[in-house]
Amino acid sequence: MKQQKPKRRRKRFLNLWGMSLISISLILVMLGMLSLLLIHARHLSEYVREKIGFTLVLQDNLKTIEIVRLQKVLNATDYVKSTQYIDKTTAAKALTEELGEDFTGFLGYNPLFASLDVKLYAPYTANDSLKILEQQFLKYPQVTEVYYQKNLVTLINKNAKKISLLLLVLSALLIFIFFGLINNTIRVLIHSKRFIINTMQMVGAEKGFIRKPFLKSSIILGTIGALIANGILFAGIYTYKKELSGLISLNDIHIPLLVSGIVLGLGILLSFLSTWSALNKFLRLKFDELFY
User: Fold this and answer.
1) How many alpha carbons fall within 13 Å on the CB side of residue 231?
2) DSSP SS3 for 110
3) Which residue, among 267, 227, 272, 241, has the nearest Cα to 31 in the 3D structure?
4) Which range (86-90, 124-128, 134-138) has the least confidence?
5) pLDDT at 102
6) Is 120 helix (H, G, I), strand (E, B) or coil?
7) 32, 73, 115, 292: which could form a disulfide with 263 (CB 3.0–4.6 Å)?
8) What's the CA gap between 67 and 191, in Å, rounded?
9) CB 206 within 8 Å of CB 292
10) What is the value of pTM for the model shown?
11) CA gyration radius for the chain?
12) Which tens digit of pLDDT belongs to each residue from 42-71?
């Protein structure tokens, strides 16, 4: 009987440890999915904002060398992502397709000018930056007019800020909830060892000495849970990569590494903090209070 009780207690503890590991792993999977959402939401916002650009109307009868020189100057700047030259003929064809009829035949000539479509990097697409860049582009002698959709730019920037704020609030709330779930999971695990903690206190063990093995176990638990979570997360992404190809960039190796690091860091940190918090509670309890 005496040998069966320790075995039963050990089996019960291992079951608790296994359930805690499964719970932490599943929570970390959700945290990993949240991280992917946040990272790709920022990338999506940048992608949309980088579609914002200027149309630089060029002087008529410019030489090819002057146009090429202007493109090289613009491409060399920190704020221009790309430039595309559109000649008069191409512009006329595009407008004809849009209108559904050949306006050049009606007018007898092509009234359009050659232009450059200039796309900017996301940090330079704020309203104030665009106004400054508009004046900067007008200083080039090859440019006669500058156009960009001001109302669309304002709408995109406003919506991007609202969505970013909403995602931050949602993320903070979910992290708080996930921390609470991990905290409760580890509290149950430490609760099964409360009498051992009390016995160690009775024989004069210091709090630091008592905490050390539990904190070490929490780091191991968080690490294993994070590794399992990363395995589940990326196995799921690989399985459904075709369905997720439009939402998640699978070609950029930095994103999987970043998400793996976030999951590992949160797994260790949340397990450590939860264990520290639970231990402090049980270290303050008296012997009579251990039975409640």
Assistant:
1) 7
2) coil
3) 267
4) 86-90
5) 63
6) strand
7) 32
8) 75
9) no
10) 0.59
11) 31
12) 777 777 777 778 888 888 777 888 888 888
Instruction: Dig out the tokens for 177 from the structure.
Output: 């909830």
Residue 287's nearest CA partner among 178, 172, 199 is 199
Who contacts 166 (Cβ-Cβ below 8 Å, separation ≥6)?
A: none
Consecutive H or E run containing 218: helix 207-239
**Does residue 1 have a pLDDT over 60?**
no
pLDDT digits (tens, 9 = 90+) for 87-113: 777 766 766 666 666 656 655 555 567
SS3 100: coil
| Sequence-separated (6 or more) residues with CB below 8 Å from residue 127 | 150, 153, 154, 157
- In which residue are the tokens 């260790």 written? 268
Q: What are phi and psi of 211, to 5 degrees?
A: -65, -35
Task: Dig out the tokens for 86 from the structure.
Answer: 């559109």
The strand ranges marked E within the chain are: 53-58, 80-86, 115-120, 143-147
Q: Is residue 144 within 8 Å of 57, Cβ to Cβ? A: yes
Buried-exposed string 247-274: b where 16+ CB fall within 10 A, e elsewhere: ebbeeeeebbeebbebbbebbbebbbbb
* 3-state secondary structure at position 84: strand
Residue 142, number of CB atoms within 10 A of its CB: 18
